[in-house]
Specification:
The complex is a heterodimer of chains A (741) and B (225). With 741 residues, chain A is α+β, with helices and mostly antiparallel strands. Chain A has 26 helices and 28 strands. Chain A has a domain of 317 residues: Phosphoribosyl-aminoimidazole Synthetase, Chain A, domain 2 (Alpha-Beta Complex). Chain A has a 7-stranded mixed sheet. In chain A, β27 and β28 form a beta hairpin. In chain A, α7 runs parallel beside α8, α7 runs parallel beside α10 and α19 runs parallel beside α20. Chain A is globular and about 85 Å long. Chain B is built from 5 helices and 11 strands, in the order βαββαβαββββαβββα. In chain B, 23% of the residues lie in helices and 25% in strands. Chain B is α/β, with parallel strands linked by helices and 225 residues long. In chain B, α2 links the parallel β3 and β4. The longest helix of chain B has 13 residues. Chain B has one domain: 3-Layer(aba) Sandwich (Rossmann fold). In chain B, α1 crosses α5. Classes of the chains: A alpha+beta (741), B alpha/beta (225). Chains A and B meet through α8 and α10 of A and α1 and β6 of B.
């Protein structure tokens, strides 16, 4: 095919272009022509198509997401906010922590192993790009029904991909979620979170400053994998009739990423970069336009210098390729020799492909011919913005009016059966089959990992400063009331952080939804963002960044609205953390927070095929007091575990099974108290001698506490119901191996 | 003056910093060694850490054995120099023929990370002399290719010469022959261990502190020389 240059584009304004196949709408194509004053070249069209995709441009979500800025609480902790590769927060002692969560949903459905693997790779590079050493990952996952054939295809592949990539990078996997619901059939959610740490002075930004500075592409060579991943895969609804999209999925090489990490960290330590950007979605199109757009000038790129894995790639394909394990740095000419030397030490290929200019254009040539001449901002930051129609779906009122018909167990025999059924259900069952495929020990700083309420990592071995991270979502509550659902997810995530003894500090989010072209889905999205922004303001936590994944639907069936909320917390002394498991016999067990009889959105109702009625309302003022109570009382809590999915029944069983130490508990309204998922509750264990302490805390923070029993024995005893630890363990742990081998 | 113990970093090594932490906690001075140099920097013992050297895309450890640093280590080891290979390091030692046998994929084909109980059976090696015979310890196991395999003749030799230093207890994690978790060479200076002692040196971050004894053992050995 003949090279489509800027000169040819100017001379042939009417050449037909495949903009629709590239995912661009008619009006978007018209706008590109307006910006350029001519038709785009095929290379420019390729760049705009990937950068203006939903995935990269946030065109449907932007108008809503700005609330995170507008409603942002004052925070001294925020060092870098939304807009960079990842937000950065100050955790004290001159340490800065960066964390972010991203989706890799669509690729993981098409090719589970590689899709999930490169999801980990992508988020790790985002964190690395900020100048940080990645220190942990987490993976919230959602699948169709556990026994559905497609779940058996995607789940093992996704878990193996996350493990295969993350384990090979040497990053401990410290938590996440695994949730099953039929709406995720054909739309599994693979969200990946990464945390990194650096010193304040080491923060790096994606900016190309200084005319004459060099643009260096380093890492893996560019191949034909993942071309159009963001536009074709991530920004469109799956349709069974369409041809297979496997070639749009990237292929990961974790070894290349591991050496890239070490290479980058050595380069950062020597202070050799002016700006840096990773190559992820939209590849070189994204990296060059974003660097130039955020910088002070223009940029010239000589595209033929890009090292290729497949020499037959066209310039358009080179620009769109999403080949993994690549980075783009801006380096002063005086430092280039040093820079290339470090790359050579790590056997990382590095090539100067252009330079920063004093102009205002991003110019790309291919063998001397000008093929791209654009204002970089129009590609990277001034993409289309849609105020899509919003309509509250009819189901909301219908479900709210519905009365739940959930049978409640009454006799001791029935209650025992209910507990065993609940803890064996895939959503509550033990997830070791998955988590044992992840390395949680590497780097030697993991203090808490799954199934604990939050992952907890030591940052400084001398001072014992640490961070905690948790991700949460209750999509069924979000489905019933997305505004409250988002608030409740944030509240739960904060509670999980505080349960371990860490103080919530900042928020990231991964908002997984159906098609934005459906006004009902858009309503769910708008309500979710409004709820999350309001909740962040009320709890005083800044949103540091996040990710939106739309088009998670097959045909007209969208997934449950699933805002996965990640919260980062800080703990001054990791040795004082509170674990979930009972450490010994003879402790008093207290339930903090009041239960009500609402079962709407609960696991028990779901197990009976019932969804409806009114989701719980959040009480953020109380949640904030609860967080403070947990932090204040940290020294007396011998164990603490959040009450959430599966209610007190699940909490008690998990608390007992962790260290195989039993408990004896008495309840009054037994079934409701066990199965209700009323938010804002935590089970704690204290020494009897600390009774006055916990009573004082309850009074100080005005939260009711209930002494429900004591630890000890080889059984979980609830009133006259006795279940042996062995029986509990069998029910809890058998589900996953039975399902997945 | 404390002893100098080298920790080798291959491209793709992951537990090198953890091994260094353990060496330091045991009381020795850590000397980082890089794969591309054959200079052992006058260290008195060497640890080959866990990880995925060169990505382990071929056979685990198959490329690492050709690294310049390995030439020096193999030569020194043949003269009694203490070498410990953990996980990927064990695989490298087998590929280098300092130890017999090979590590193959776990029998259930999954990567497995768990706290593993072991029985220490040989306390005469350079790296296990601090344990008591048949001591039971718990340290993390984490690998995808940890199934120890060898022919019958080699197995008989290892068993009859007491060169099985540690065996999996209570649970077979990977299908290793005779539940072998670690072996030594004839002289006892070279030890390969699949589970990770460097991740069991403090109760805050590991299941026990049992692993530290591996690193203190070699220091006792060096003192006694």
């Amino acid at each position: 095919m003949k090279l489509d240059t800027v000169a040819i584009a100017s001379q042939n304004p009417d050449t037909e272009q495949p903009f629709a196949q590239l995912g661009l709408k008619d009006d978007e194509y018209v706008r590109i022509k307006e910006i350029l004053g001519r038709r785009p070249t095929s290379s420019e069209l390729a760049m705009y198509s990937v950068m203006w995709s939903e995935h990269c441009s946030y065109k449907s979500s932007k108008v809503h997401l700005k609330q995170f800025g507008e409603k942002a609480p004052k925070s001294d902790a925020l060092l870098v906010g939304i807009g960079e590769n990842a937000g950065v927060v100050d955790i004290g002692q001159n340490y800065a922590v960066t964390f972010k969560i991203e989706s890799h949903n669509h690729p993981s459905f098409v090719e589970p192993y590689q899709g999930a693997a490169t999801g980990v790779g992508g988020i790790v590079r985002d964190i690395l790009t900020m100048g940080a050493r990645p220190i942990a990952v987490m993976d919230p996952l959602r699948f169709g029904l556990a026994d559905a054939p497609d779940t058996r295809r995607v789940l093992p592949g996704i878990v193996a991909g996350i493990g295969g990539y993350g384990n090979c990078l040497g990053l401990p996997n410290i938590g996440g979620e695994i949730v099953f619901d039929e709406t995720y059939a054909g739309n599994p959610l693979v969200n990946a979170l990464c945390v990194g740490v650096m010193k304040h002075e080491d923060i790096k930004l994606a900016k190309a400053h200084g005319a004459g500075n060099l643009v260096v592409l380093f890492g893996a060579k560019t191949g034909g994998d993942g071309i159009g991943g963001v536009s074709v895969l991530a920004s469109e609804t799956f349709n069974a009739a369409k041809p297979t999209k496997r070639p749009s999925v990237q292929v990961g090489d974790p070894f290349a990423e591991k050496v890239l990490i070490e290479c980058c960290l050595e380069i950062f330590a020597a202070d050799l970069v002016v700006g840096i950007q990773d190559l992820g979605g939209a590849g070189l199109s994204c990296a060059t336009s974003e660097l130039a757009s955020a910088g002070s000038g223009g940029m010239n790129i000589q595209l033929e210098k890009v090292p290729l894995r497949d020499p037959s790639l066209s310039p358009e394909e080179i620009l769109m390729s999403e080949s993994q394990e690549r980075m783009c740095a801006i380096v002063e000419p005086a430092n280039i020799k040093y820079f290339l030397g470090i790359c050579k030490k790590w056997d990382v290929s590095a090539t100067v492909i252009g330079e920063v200019t004093s102009g205002e254009r991003l110019n790309i040539t291919f063998n001397g011919e000008l093929i791209v001449d654009v204002p970089p901002r129009t590609v990277a930051h001034d993409g289309p913005v849609y105020n899509r129609p919003i309509a509250k779906p009819a189901y909301v009122a219908e479900l709210a009016a519905k009365e739940l018909k959930v049978p409640m167990p009454e006799s001791a025999v029935e209650i025992k059966a209910a507990i065993l059924k609940l803890i064996a259900s895939p959503n509550i069952a033990d997830k070791s089959w998955v988590t044992s495929q992840y390395d949680k020990y590497v780097q030697g700083n993991t203090v808490l990992a799954q199934p604990e309420d939050a992952g907890l990592i030591r940052i400084d071995e001398k001072t014992n400063l640490g961070v905690a991270v948790s991700t949460d979502a209750n999509a069924r509550w979000s489905y019933l009331d997305p505004y409250e659902g988002a608030k409740l997810a944030l509240a739960e995530s904060c509670r999980n952080i505080a349960t371990t003894g860490a103080k919530p500090l900042a928020v990231t989010n991964c908002l997984n939804f159906g098609s934005p072209e459906d006004p009902g889905v858009m309503w769910q999205f708008a309500e979710t963002v409004r709820g999350l922004a309001d909740a962040c303001l009320e709890l005083g936590l800044p949103v540091t960044g996040g990710n939106v994944s739309f088009y998670n639907q097959t045909g007209s069936v969208a997934i449950l609205p699933t805002p996965v909320i990640g919260v980062l917390g800080v703990i001054q002394d990791v040795r004082k953390r509170t674990p979930m498991g009972l450490p010994k016999s003879g402790l008093d067990l207290y339930l903090i927070g009041k239960v009500d009889s609402n079962l709407s959105g609960s696991e028990w109702a779901y197990l009976h095929g019932e969804i409806g009625n009114t989701a719980p309302k959040s009480d953020l003022a109380m949640e904030a007091r609860l967080v403070n109570l947990l932090l204040d009382g940290q020294s007396i809590f011998q164990a603490a575990h959040d009450v959430s999915n599966g209610g007190l029944a699940a909490t008690l069983v998990e608390t007992v099974l962790k260290n195989k130490i039993g408990a004896e508990v008495s309840l009054t309204n037994t079934a409701v108290e066990l199965l209700s998922e009323t938010p804002g509750r935590v089970l704690v264990a204290i020494n009897e001698s600390d009774t006055n302490g916990i009573v004082a805390l309850a009074g100080k923070y005005q939260i009711p506490i209930y002494k429900i029993g004591t630890s000890g024995g080889n059984d979980l005893v609830i009133n006259d119901i006795k279940i042996s630890i062995e029986e509990l363990s069998k029910a809890h742990t058998e589900t996953f191996p039975k399902l997945f081998g | 003056m404390s002893f100098r113990i080298g920790v080798v970093t291959f491209p793709g090594s992951l537990d090198d910093r953890d091994a260094a932490r353990a060496v330091e906690m045991a009381g020795a001075t850590v000397v980082p060694l890089f794969h591309a140099s054959d200079d052992l920097k006058e260290v008195q013992a060497v640890v080959l850490p866990g990880g995925f050297s060169y990505g382990d895309y071929l056979r685990c450890g198959a490329i690492a054995r050709f690294a310049p640093i390995m030439n020096s280590i193999v030569t020194a080891a043949e003269h009694g120099f203490p070498v410990l290979g953990i996980c990927n390091g064990f695989q490298v030692l087998c590929e280098s023929h300092l130890l017999p046998g090979a590590l193959t994929r776990n029998s259930n084909l999954h990567f497995l990370c768990r706290d593993q109980k072991l029985k220490i059976e040989n306390t005469n090696t350079f790296w296990t002399n601090g344990f008591t015979k048949d001591q039971e310890i718990t340290i993390p196991l984490k690998n995808g290719e940890g199934s120890f395999q060898c022919d019958d003749e080699t197995l008989n030799m290892l068993e009859s010469e007491g060169r099985v230093i540690a065996r999996y207890l209570d649970f077979d994690p990977n299908g290793s022959r005779n539940l072998i978790a670690g072996i030594s060479n004839e002289r006892g200076n070279v030890v390969g261990l699949m589970p990770h002692p460097e991740h069991a040196i403090e109760t805050l971050t590991g299941p026990s502190t049992d692993g530290l004894t591996i690193f203190t053992s070699v220091l006792h050995q060096l003192v006694g020389r």
